[in-house]
Design a protein that fits this description.
Layout lengths: L1 H15 L2 E6 L9 H14 L4 E4 L12 H5 L6 E2 L10 H8 L6 E5 L2 E5 L7 H13 L4 E5 L14 H13 L4 E4 L5 E6 L2 E6 L16 E5 L4 E6 L3 E8 L3 E9 L1
Parallel strand pairs: 1-2, 2-3, 5-6, 6-7, 7-9
Antiparallel strand pairs: 1-11, 4-5, 8-9, 8-10, 11-12, 12-13
Length: 254
């Protein structure tokens, strides 16, 4: 009985120490629900602080010029941006704003390592960087972040070219989760043992789905943000709409 109690306490302790990040995609638009999503994130941060915030691209509409008021609405944490098609015209200004040298990079927080890919120009140099970064990573959890999804039932759909370039690396180096935006909805998909999340409901006007692809598991057309949590043994993602409405939640285990 004592041994079981000690094991339970150790497991709970590892989860309490989990890294916790907010996730928001396609958020930089002057829509009615953008401030509602931002407010919901701030309230979540006040109750249980985030260690950072990941964006999934299209940070500012329509041509990428930063809007300070939009940033001021977000929780006051470190922002780890991905960059999308609407960000391209002002990419240099955004790189300076967010303090990153180039539009692809990686960062490690506890048990989690995140690999941010620039999906607008995925050239051989970036692929070589990504493979080296994935190969040398010792993180228990590896998560890929980019703007354009590999799989999607949404308006734009999944990118076949990115899928053919990236999926072999994801499988080879055991990436369990891919986070993307671009389609203005929420969708969870499963493909070849990898969970894919499309989370593009952070601020841009929403769109409905086209025909569901075979990999699709959950589809919701609603404004939202995500919460990513990682401990040594578990990786979880929760999609939350304003008003603390739960849209989806799942947990991956090692």
């Amino acid at each position: 009985m004592l041994l079981r109690t000690l094991i339970l306490l150790l497991l709970l302790g590892s989860w309490v120490c989990a890294q916790r990040l907010a996730v928001i995609g396609d958020w930089g638009a002057a829509s009615p629900h953008r401030p509602q999503v931002a407010q919901a994130m701030r309230e979540a941060h006040e109750k249980h602080p985030f260690d950072g915030l990941i964006t999934l691209g299209d940070n500012f509409y329509p041509r990428g010029e930063p809007v300070q008021a939009f940033i001021d609405d977000l929780p006051k944490v470190r922002i780890y941006p991905a960059f999308g098609n609407h960000d391209v015209p002002a990419l240099g200004a955004q790189l300076r704003l967010f303090g990153v040298e180039r539009p692809y990079y990686s960062f490690r927080l506890g048990a989690l390592e995140v690999f941010v890919v620039y999906s607008e120009v995925f050239d051989p140099a970036q692929r070589s960087w990504l493979e080296t970064a994935l190969k040398t990573s010792r993180a228990p959890w590896k998560v890929l972040v980019l703007h354009r999804p590999l799989y999607s039932s949404g308006f734009h759909g999944g990118s076949r070219s990115l899928r053919s370039s990236l999926e072999p690396l994801l499988l080879r180096y055991e990436v369990r989760l891919v986070l993307a935006g671009h389609d203005h909805d929420y969708e969870r998909l499963e493909a070849r043992g990898i969970t894919h999340v499309v989370s593009g409901g952070g601020g841009a006007y929403l769109r409905g789905f086209l025909k569901a692809v075979p990999q699709s598991r959950v589809r919701v057309v609603e404004a939202h943000f995500g919460v990513l949590e990682a401990s040594e043994e578990r990786l979880s993602f929760t999609a939350v709409a304003p008003g603390n409405k739960l849209l989806d939640s799942f947990t991956l285990r090692r």
